[in-house]
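[PROTEIN RECORD]
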Amino acid sequence: MSENQATEERVLPLLVRPSAEGDVPAMLAIYEHHIRQGEPDLDAQFAMPEPLHDEDLKRRRKNMLRRRLPHLVAERGNMVVGYAYAVPFRKRPAYRYAVKHSIYVHPGHLHSGVGRALLPALVEACAEAGYRQMFAYVDASNVASRSLHEAFGFRLVGVLEGVGLKFGRWTDSLLLQRPLGAGADSPPDYSRTT
């Protein structure tokens, strides 16, 4: 792709929508790029013993949707250029109203507004589903990701020192948090989440 084509693609409007099974190959390609070359998140900081396969990602996606957890893609010019999802913060029932999330952006579309479109859509979907707190783990050296999260109401609540081994070096992770809906100011609607 020429530089002009890449620039033209980056100015096309973004559509954020729920992911579909047909999006899995594009999501897998984005994820694998970040694992092998990019700045992976906390869940992706260790070398995978085997590559992730389409069926693995399809199964994960279905499990999230079954639990009413959002799984979104950003599309630009009929091409998936990013995706985002939320998973339970912890497995124990006491934490069932808290989620953590991940956002992955196609390497050719970094810094083009994809994260700025996905993050508020994910926040809104989680709040609508009845969740009350959202967490993000951000590599301490990833200033752009921290700035993005802070722009959407996340605040620093902790630093996890030397928890990741990425590309042969130890890394720190920032723990960011924001309330969803009424946050901790009132009891939840117990019928909304599982």
The chain has one domain: 3-179. Residues 68 and 113 are 26 Å apart (CA to CA). The radius of gyration is 17 Å.
